[in-house]
Amino acid sequence: MAGMREGPAVRARSIDAAGRPEAELVVGGGASDEQISWRDPEHAILGPEAASGAANRLSRLVVGIVRRRMSDGLMVREVLIDGWRVEVELEAEDRAALRDRARRGAPAGSTGGPLAIRAELPGRIVRLLVAGGDQVDAGQQLLVIEAMKMLNELRAPRAGRVGRVAVAAGDGVDLGDLLVLLE
Amino acid sequence: MLVANRGEIAVRIIRACHELGIESVAVYSDADRHARHVRAADVAVRIGPAPAGESYLSAEAIIAAAQATGAEAIHPGYGFLAERATFAAAVESAGLVFVGPDSTAIAAMGDKLAARRLARSVDVPVVPGTLEPAPASDPAGVAAITAAAESLGFPLMVKAAAGGGGRGMRRVPAADELRGALVAASEEALAAFGDGAVYLEREIRPARHIEVQLLGEAGGRVIAIGERDCSIQRRHQKLVEESPAPGLTTRQRLDVHAMAVRIATAAGLTNAATAEFLLDEAGAFWFLEVNSRLQVEHGITELVTGLDLVHEQLWLASGARLSAAALAAAERAGQPVGHAIEVRISLEDPARSFLPLSGRVGRFSLAAGPGIRVDAGIEAGDRVPAEYDSLVAKLMVHAADRPTAIDRLRRALDESEIGGVQTTLPFHWFVAASPDFRAGRLSTDFVDEHWDGPAARATAVSRALLAVGLAARSENPSRGAEGPSRSTDAAAESPWLAAARAEGVDRWPG
After folding, report:
1. Three-class secondary structure of residue B112 per DSSP
2. What's the predicted TM-score (pTM) here?
3. Are residues A19 and A94 located together in one domain of the fold?
4. Residue B375's pLDDT is what?
5. Does this complex have an ipTM over 0.95?
6. In this complex, which of A68, A80, A173 lies closest to B417 when CB atoms are compared?
7. Do the domain assignments include residue A5?
């Protein structure tokens, strides 16, 4: 496992099952003793662990092929590790830093601007408790989603006026679908 | 035979039909047009749009599909219409065979309160609680039920009389939450089962969940062929099951089997059913309920007994007596040989309270080899709709004894890879490696007491980031993370893939 080349730093950021940024790691600078061996382009197995039996292994890791995500052109890799599915975005560290700076420069809109409340679980809208134009308090119930047998109440994260209700009772919603726009 | 279900159980029943030379008819909603059970069957009939209420729960559409295809029998699987006595009665009156207990027995057992009264009448201990429906809205009734609750003591459970699968169930820690729990459970039960009746039960805790597999023939003969421990649950839904239940004495085993047979005999149960009990710390069994259908976890009983329960169901439904093999299994049930464990693979996020997920499954490669059985309802590339249960596959292992079965489970999980959507696999990895599980320290609180999903995920994520970050840097240091491929020959594939392919050849030792 010699001959690992040095390159520019890479930022790897994982995305959770709801599609939100989760954790990140910057790999770069200096030589390293990475123990990664390629068996084929679709499978990487952590070196020292690959040889031992299932009972002694620290982790089992399967790395999917790199795909370019259509929406933003980022390189994304799916990793399966001990049953977990981890989606990792990969970007050269210098580019990632530029992107972060651009994001910080935008007006901080979290308190005054509109807030899009999206479905955090797939399911079906059972009941709507607000309509466009309603004034709601923080914590007030907005709607009820039935997700696999359970009724889940969705509450307003802050006070505001309901700008738009994007769903109707009986609608099926998927993860990330817009439900209510809070102004 | 028409299979009035979907997913892994529909596939499993269709397989049994084909083994017996019976033609199979699948039914499907619009969300399942390309589902695996549709592809597995000889004939498939569309029965309605995606919502279960308009498709898999539509008795009329299903019976019409049976008549249109010339099916002579309907197997309901589990869930959906399996325990609706009105459905069984409608099937019977349409001149078709319902594969399961007859409609009167389903009605008697489907009402959990009636089942509790019946169990008491044959001297089986029932979990202390009420035996009549608790009113949720009538103020005078609420006062009476509050008094009953005070005498039982808190915490207690509110349960739906028509309930099952954890729906219409609420834990009530203190008196001031009783009213709200009654209303919520009643509303959920009404939505799920069309019946809002609820009752109270004392909470027995810590407890193990033990259930007994029963087979019955027309004329009243019922046998118990073994028990299962299904203690590891979340939201009152099972995650891991095993058979036989570890740590029971032969005396305990025979006692609980006999209790189950007494209840089923009194209820006139035929075909296949399961009686559920709680086992408290003192070693006493308390009757919970009877499920008058095939259970999700029937496969582990099949592995231990060598029976095929769907075959048995079909023979019994055709009017045959209990098979010689089934009677022999009942003889051995007190001293079972071998051990089987099942883990339920569902699309859920174990880092976020097992939140159900849906979406397209990518890589889907489950274990194989000695002692492994996989019952799956999907294949790689299938889209799993949000409308239905999140269970996609059951991974079962069988070995000569429990420690060997656990070792085999670890090996099987190590071989299993599912991509595209998060599944319950990480939790199963944890269970298979858990010293408490290996020691047989099982309880319905296992998940709450032992599982820290966010921490387990954080460990896995940090390893994944390290591996992928290092790989990315080593694969293609000059252009990998920058942008589109500049090479002319790789328009269709990423530069990393191309580089990895080239380097893979260079670096593979030997």
Report:
1. helix
2. 0.81
3. yes
4. 98
5. no
6. A80
7. no
